[in-house]
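Z., the sequence and structure:
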Amino acid sequence: MRWTLVGLLLLGCPSVKDDSEVADTGVSTLPPLSCTDTLELVAGDAQNYAYTVDIDIVPTSIQALSDATVCWSDVTTDIRGRPLDPSTIEQVTLTRVSLTEAETEQAVIQNTLTQEYVADIRMLVSPTDTCAQLTDFSIIGNFFLPEFDMPEDPDTTWLASVWKFNDYGRNEILMSGIFEPLAASDNNTFDINDSSTALTFDADLQSLSEVRACEGPSQLWFDWSGVTVDATGKAWDSRTSDTLLIGKVAGSVADAEESFIQLYETAEAIWTMPVYGLTRTHLLDDGTISAVDYDGRTLVPRALDGTAFPGFDSTGTWLIGIECSTCTSPAPTFLTVVSVE
């Protein structure tokens, strides 16, 4: 399914644990599913989805070593294609990356924009307007000084991003743009708008081997220890792939493909839970769980209203995956379809 959005992206997929599984591939020849037994859902690399992606962040030249006005008042649609009120932006960041513009684009979509590439970062938290001067940005009390901090340098890239916390506590990048300091430029205004970043990608949720599950409260565990690479092809890291996601979407798998980047908004129901450092977790409370969340509730996937995940049913399309709450891409690092029997 082809998407063209103003933004950034990614994703992934699993099977039922059985002695007939082939451990090195995750592929299995499974016997008929017995729903009288408690089942454990197991994911491996063979279940991961396929995708292709392109990104284009159009740079704006501004005068080097000089203050400038940064505005985000024209951002009305975020990178997921959702309507956005620019006055609700909660944080704006300016990040100097020790990469070229082309390398920065790839780092954004591949989730490789790590601390080693960050040469400088300045923030504006809780802005009171939709425009600000570069000199309004700071980090730990150190304000941005363009006359020292912003020389012309073709080997580095300035990435400006607007952020907001979603209802699930993730601080999301809603839109990004690049500004390019040039000594020859006399421009002192930089606008982040709906066309600052264009993303085109193809995602396939229909060619994978689906996870099989029984209807009702029978799947006590989900095990993704067999996943060795994430959806971007990097080695799996349980410290960054830190949030379990279960979603129920009305319609078919094709319908889920159409809306997966807006899953939180379009799903009939969503349950999440933190899984930092884990590769296996309970889906349902069997009375043996001692871990609790910040509200003292048993640590299982929960909806926004606190309702625990009740198990799968046979209506709609079910997805289960793992997200990275700190990544530049908003899509899950792993995602698959659950076939409910």
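Residues 101-109 form the longest helix (9 residues). The longest strand covers residues 171-182.

Let me know what you think.
H.
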